[in-house]
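Please check what follows.
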Amino acid sequence: MVCLGAFIAPLGMASVNVAIPALAQELSASGILVSWVPTAVLVANIICMLPAGKLADNWGRKRVFQLGIVINALAGISAYFASGMWWLLAMRFMQGMGAAMIFATSMAILISVFPVHRRGLPLGLNAACVYLGLTLAPALGGWVTHYLGWRFVFLLPLPLVSIVLVLSFFYVKGEWRNAKGERFDWRGALLLATWAITLVFGFTSLPSPVGFFTLCASCLLFAGFVWGQLNSKAPLIRVQMFSESRLFSMSLAAALFMYASSYPLGFLLSLYLQYVLGLSAADAGQIMLSQALAMAVVAPFAGKLADFFPARILSSVGCGLTLAGFFLLHQLQLSTTGFYISVALGLVGVGFGLFSSPNNLAVMQAAHPSETGVASATLNLARVSGNLVGMSLVNLLVYSLIGDRPLTGALAEPILATFLHALELSMSFVALAVIFSLLRGKACAR
């Protein structure tokens, strides 16, 4: 049940990237508006991740998981009928809400079910299913867009959704929650949501004065959120968790920077392959397969190794391989071959697969059993926050280098320049991730 759910969420999120040129043409969307197709999901993830984890600990992890599956599917069905970009973006936001509920509960359910000495492989398999969803998403999205049209991309997860719901309601018995049952911090949830919205709009409004002041406001809101959590009797997250365990805090920091480096890659690579190299959506999707396929193959083995070897070593090696793959991608030109791109993406995928499973296990093992839902949500929040920072900076690059012009093949050089500048940011983020990965210490994630 959990692994199928972990497959559905990224499939619905990432398959749309390949369809962006087609939907942009039909809905007459500019480059700036199109960049919100992946960003809207991230905003919803950040707003809902911690509240979903807290609700899961109190109300039931399986219940919140089921609700996330349903919301994700209904939003996809509604997106199929979208008549304009604003409707589409609203449904992408709803998809992000559902995905947040799935991500916030999946690892917590596994930690609740499996004993300490047997958690590496289940978490590795869960990560592999996430990457398998990412693996098939570009190819399936490309093929469906090419042969049926971009609207059908939003219906891709529906057969699996029905299977997951049948499994969860009729075959997966029991429920997992925090026995104490604390009240929900609605004030903290509202403050977190306001922070996420101001952060995104601040980044996307730069370099204007409005963008600068909005970012300053987001910093104040985040400080207020942290202060409120420190003084709340039933916080969304115990901020003390970060000071209690260096393994916990450094692993989260490494995750944040690794995912900040990777999320914009699918969006920009889709534009590069179709507008710069002139490939079809189906061909672009096949080239983008290599990264996630490598992740899906490596992640379970890395999870099993994490039961015996420190996350500090395994994850740091993964960071290094990812950095090497980004360096190869930074050499792309107006006529680079698809084989070269696939090899570079494969190296990035191996690095991420080796990084993610040991890092996830380190975070989950460092948390108290009663806080596994919050720990799972916090790990995914670090991932999504990294995604949001990376995507927001890329949105700024799109604004500066492409602007509000309709996307066409005539913009090949600006699109390539945007891609290369984004990779320079990605390499900087990975370098920071290596530092935090090594700083977590010698503790073994057991």
Observations:
- The domain at 2-174+234-439 is CATH 1.20.1250.20 (Growth Hormone; Chain: A;).
- The chain has a mean pLDDT of 80.
- The chain has two domains: 2-174+234-439, 185-233.
